[in-house]
Structures are given as structure tokens and as C-alpha cells.
Specification:
The strands form 7 sheets. The protein has a 7-stranded mixed β-sheet with strand order 3-9-10-16-13-12-11. A 5-stranded mixed β-sheet has the order 20-19-21-22-23, with helices on both faces. Strands 5-4-6 form a 3-stranded antiparallel β-sheet. It is of the alpha+beta class.
Length: about 525
């Protein structure tokens, strides 16, 4: 655990040092769980969003996008259930005066048991070498099976208690497991209480005429209330989807783990409207499709796993998370949910308007079922960034810190470096920059340090290519192009740069892996 915490601290520090993420309002000591995306961070975030949009919308003829307003009529949230039931179970430590999410305390306890399983796997892999079969070991080793049985028992009980709103049993579970305050070690806990997470505000020019509204806690409801508008104006036929990216807000009392859990965050969601009775088929389809999207980025199959929900929302008939191995363990990255017809029926009831689809093939109207995929853009950013940050030992005995971002997502695709700031080299660098910037985000690094130091700086910033302009360039119109990951250097013609870079960073190349 200490090693994980140390790695996570490096991630946070690196994100600030290289212009990815700053604490919001830092000069005023900041706001808890609110962050600003800096010059490189905003580019990486944009590229992740575009990579999702390309795969989800542009590559599917039956999925379209919208951008619904953050502020919606307050009855929206009554219909969706957020006003009455959008709560987190919170518990206070009487000695430290710190507040925690009760379910997260239990999940973190289970994560420590999972760490023991990982330790057993590593020991066995070292002992058996190339003949080690991880799947067989996990399925047969007595100690591992005991650990897994304990995890399953704890999470099953937690899910049942939360589903039944038995908060007394949640507290009893915490006490039975002897879970202590992470900061002080105290086990002196209060009762567990529910806390609503929505931010409320007033809409209107005066107190007398103002209306209580909410900052949306999710983007999905903007899709549901526009279902019929999109279907009719787009002449959409079932099955079809509506996608959206945008900000959402939750008053997280226990916000932590950097950008993993924030009060202001961004979602990428798609609601897929289907014929009732076909939901299991589409649930399986979208589970497989979404995992393939993640794997297309090449961040390691072992870093992903499915977690099928034991506790289902009352409106759902199936739900699973794609979990990613963050520096602090496996956590939810994306959710795939079979939501039945709950959402549209609720909005029908509260609005008094029909939200039905007329099926010409069956000559009847019905309320479609919904299959949802929902991913946190900020969490995806953290997954990409934390997985990419590595420290490598080199053959010459030195080491380097390198941010091996998938090239398709990297903020800056290429940095152009004149060897010196004289002899016409800066002018050639400018010419190359002006040509490449039409297709790629590129920069010039002409600061007066050695090429080696400039390479290291760009490695740490995550730039896939460095292009060096030297005195030979004046003679033969060639430059040296260096690849970040392999550190391989090649002499190429300036006219070939565009094609070389495009081959490595083009979305089509990456998405074809799906």
C-alpha cells in the first residue's frame, strides 16, 4: 500500500509540474476536490473526449449526439428519483472529527485483501516462472480462494444492507471488521446517515419569483427528456442511441484521490434505446464493445476487469462496471447499465407527455428500454495519465521519467528543436512548425540547453516525437526524428514528417484495433 501511495503522489506532482492539472484557485489556498486542467491537461482531456466521440457517434450510423443544458426544470430530478434518493451513506469518526463514506471504507478494506491476493500471485509467478498459469492458480489456491470468499461475503452483505437501507448493519459491519480511521486509527464511529449530493441554487431575478433548481448530478436526464425530439427530427429507428459529454456536479462530502472523485466533473454517456425484450443481447454487446474501446489504447488487458453488480438499482435488470487498476487499486471507470423503461416512464408520469416510439414493423407504440454506457472523463484522464507515468532504467546506467501516453491522445504530437539559435536553424524550425500545425498540435523548444536535456523534458511531458534541426539540415533538407518510447532516432526528409507522425497518431489506426 505504501508503494501505491508513493506512486500516486508522484502522479499528482507530475501532473502539476508538467502543466496538466492545477488546484483550482490555488492562490487563495484552493477548493477541496475542485481542479483546473492546465495547458497540457486540457489538450489530453479534449483528445480523450474526441476519441470517445469518434468511436461512439461518428462510427455508429444509429447514434447521434446532443448537448443538453446543465440547468433543467426541477421536476426532472423529482421524476428521476434524485430529489428523494440521491444519497451517500456517511459516517463520522468521533475522535478525528473526519467524515467518510461508509461504503468506501468497507471497499477499501476489501482492496487490502485484494492486495494480499496480488502478493500471492506475484510470489507464485516468481516460483513457477514461465509455466505459471495465473487463472488456474486463482481458481485452485486455497489461500487465494479464502481471501476471495471473504471479499465476496463482505461486499454481498454491504450491498444487501444498502439496498434495504439498513444503515445500522453497515455500521455493524464496519465495527465487526475493526475498520479504523485511516488518519488516526480510531474506531470510535457515529451512526451511518444518508446525505443528498445535489447542489441547489435559485433561478430568477428576485427572491419572490425565483425557482429552486439544481446543478445536474448526471448528464443522462438531458438525453431522456429529449428522446422524442431527437427521434422525430432525426427520423431515428429503434435501436438507436443518443450520446452526450458534459459537466455534472455532486456535493461530495468525502472527495479524495485527486481527480478520481470531484465535485465538478465531466461525463461521457450514451443512452441506447431498444425494443423491450432485447436488453440482454444489447447489454452483452455494449459490455464487449466498450471494453474493446479501452483496450484499443494499449494500456494493458490486465489493468481492466468487469465487476457485475450484486446490488441493482430498482429500475435495472443488469449492471456492470469496467474497473481499472489505478495506483490505489481497481476502481470503477465506466458503467454499463440495463435501465429497462424506468426513465422514460417516469418522465411520462411527471410531465404528462407521452414518450413512446411507434414501431412501424409491429404497428404499435411502446416505451423503449434503455441500455446505458457512462464513463467519467476525468477518471479516464487519471487512468491514462497514471498508467503512462513510468521510470525506466537505461542501458547506460542512467534513468529517465517518461510519460508514455498513447500517441493518439498525447497533448503535443511533436516538438521541433533547432540545435542552436543561429545559422538559420530557428527559421527552418519555424517553417516545419507552420507546416505541421495544420494537422498536429506541435511546439518549438529552442531553449538554450542541450538536446539531451530537451529530450528528457519532452519524455516527461509525454510528447511522442522530437524533431531536431541541425546544420546538416541546411545541406540535405533532412532532420532527426526521435521516438519517445523506444528513443530510436532516424534521419528523415522534412517532406516525410507529416506521414511519419500521422501513422502513429491517427485515430483511425488506433480505433481499427477494436
Amino acid at each position: 500500500m505504501a508503494k501505491q501511495e508513493d506512486q500516486f503522489k508522484k502522479v499528482i506532482s507530475h501532473a502539476k509540474e508538467y502543466g496538466y492539472i492545477f488546484q483550482s484557485s490555488e492562490i487563495y489556498d484552493g477548493l477541496s476536490a475542485v481542479y483546473d486542467y492546465a495547458q497540457n491537461g486540457v489538450e489530453l482531456k479534449k483528445n480523450i473526449r474526441e476519441y470517445w466521440w469518434k468511436a461512439m457517434v461518428q462510427m455508429n450510423e444509429n447514434i447521434v449526439g446532443i448537448d443538453a443544458s446543465i440547468l433543467m426544470h426541477p421536476t426532472t430530478w423529482k421524476a428521476s428519483g434524485h430529489v428523494d434518493a440521491f444519497n451517500d451513506p456517511l459516517i463520522d469518526n468521533k475522535d478525528s472529527k473526519k467524515r467518510y463514506r461508509a461504503d468506501v471504507l468497507v471497499e477499501d478494506y476489501c482492496a487490502k485483501i485484494e492486495a494480499k491476493i496480488d502478493k500471492e500471485v506475484k510470489k507464485a509467478a516468481k516460483r513457477f516462472g514461465d509455466s505459471f498459469d495465473k487463472e488456474q492458480f486463482l481458481a485452485t489456491n486455497g489461500r487465494v480462494l479464502g481471501y476471495q470468499e471473504k471479499i465476496n461475503s463482505i461486499l454481498s452483505r454491504l450491498a444487501k444492507s444498502l439496498e434495504n437501507e439498513d444503515l445500522a448493519d453497515v455500521k455493524a459491519l464496519i465495527e465487526e471488521l475493526e475498520i479504523a480511521d485511516p488518519l488516526t486509527g480510531s474506531k470510535n464511529w457515529t451512526d451511518v446517515k444518508q446525505f443528498n449530493l445535489m447542489f441547489g441554487t435559485q433561478l430568477g431575478a428576485s427572491a419572490d419569483s425565483s425557482m429552486q433548481v439544481y446543478l445536474r448530478p448526471e448528464t443522462a436526464q438531458g438525453i431522456f427528456v429529449n428522446f422524442l425530439n431527437v427521434q422525430k427530427t432525426g427520423r431515428m429507428k429503434i435501436p438507436f442511441g443518443i450520446a452526450q459529454t458534459g459537466k455534472a456536479f455532486r456535493n461530495e462530502i468525502v472527495a479524495r484521490q485527486f481527480i478520481f472523485r470531484m465535485r465538478e466533473f465531466e461525463q461521457m454517456e450514451m443512452q441506447f434505446f431498444i425494443k423491450p425484450g432485447t436488453q440482454q443481447e444489447w447489454y452483452k454487446h455494449w459490455k464487449e464493445t466498450r471494453l474493446k474501446w479501452h483496450l484499443s489504447l494499449g494500456m494493458g488487458e490486465d489493468n481492466y476487469r468487469f465487476h457485475d453488480h450484486e446490488k441493482l438499482a430498482h429500475y435495472a435488470d443488469a449492471a456492470a462496471d469496467i474497473e481499472f487498476k489505478f495506483p490505489f487499486g481497481f476502481k470503477e471507470l465506466e458503467g454499463i447499465h440495463s435501465r429497462t423503461d424506468f426513465d422514460l416512464k417516469q418522465h411520462e408520469e411527471f410531465s404528462g407527455k407521452k414518450l413512446q416510439y411507434f414501431d412501424h414493423e409491429e404497428n404499435k407504440s411502446y416505451v423503449p428500454y434503455v441500455l446505458e454506457t457512462s464513463i467519467g472523463l476525468d477518471r479516464m484522464f487519471l487512468a491514462v495519465f497514471s498508467n503512462s507515468l513510468q521510470e525506466e532504467e537505461l542501458e547506460n546506467g542512467t534513468s529517465r521519467v517518461v510519460l508514455k501516453l498513447p500517441a493518439v491522445l498525447a497533448p503535443v504530437k511533436a516538438t521541433i528543436m533547432p540545435l542552436t539559435n543561429k545559422d538559420g536553424l530557428p527559421e527552418i524550425a519555424q517553417k516545419i512548425y507552420k507546416e505541421l500545425r495544420w494537422e498536429f498540435n506541435t511546439i518549438i523548444d529552442d531553449q538554450g540547453v542541450s538536446i539531451g536535456k530537451r529530450y528528457r523534458r519532452q519524455d516527461a511531458a509525454g510528447t511522442p516525437f522530437c524533431i531536431t534541426v541541425d546544420h546538416d539540415t541546411l545541406e540535405d533538407n533532412t532532420v532527426t526524428i526521435r521516438h519517445r518510447d523506444s528513443m530510436e532516432q532516424k534521419r528523415v526528409k522534412i517532406d516525410d514528417l507529416r506521414d511519419i507522425i500521422k501513422q502513429e497518431v491517427d485515430m483511425r489506426t488506433w480505433l481499427m484495433k477494436m
